[in-house]
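Notes from the 1:1 (GR / supervisor)

We went over the backlog. Supervisor wanted to see one worked example end to end before approving the batch request, so GR pasted a single chain during the call. The sequence is below; no edits were made to it. Supervisor asked that the structure be written out right there so they could see what the output format looks like.
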Amino acid sequence: MFLRNKMPILFFYLMLTVLCFPVSFANVIEEVDNSASAKPKLERHFVFETIPMNLEEITDASGIIFSGECLDSEEIENDQESNLPIIKYTFKVTECIKGNCVDKVTFKQWKGAARAISYEIGKNYVLFLYPESERGLTSPVALEQGSFAIEKKGLIRRKEVVRNKLNNRGLNRNLRTQKTISISDKYINNYVHNCSESGIPMRYKEFIKAVRYLSKEK
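Structure output shown during the call:
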């Protein structure tokens, strides 16, 4: 009976914690004891990625940005570097926008993150990845916001479009702070704003142009 009466309060504090402490799967491990038997502990910020980010913030937080095809995924139950179950992905790079990405990119993502975001072999994506953590792990920036599937749209003139799992909502403005992006190319700027507000896919070429503008205009 006591627990039943306290459930609404516990739920409130859980939601407050989720809203106030954003997390990154790129940093899932805290420092471990020096003892040989010590096991890695999960950091307090490792499960939820709750603060919405606009496209400029996503771009700034990325260590590497590229588009490409997922060639391979390998599950490793006990990765020697991180001492965690991980999935190792290999991508063939189509276009490198930021960071060191020439022909292929290989990165490791904590297996638990695959529940929120994963990649299918043979499919194409635009990925905004955090810089690798000390244990060699990374993940898309803001998880669902930083991973865009590339799709074909149109029956006759099929064009490539991109969208994330949030249908691109929030890319033009941070939904919490209301900070908006501003691109000097007015057409590209308005296009991103309109697609984001409407929650619709963006044409690949315009999207990549927007990211390149945001990478340079500092």
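Supervisor's comment: The CA atoms of residues 52 and 174 lie 6 Å apart.
Batch request approved.
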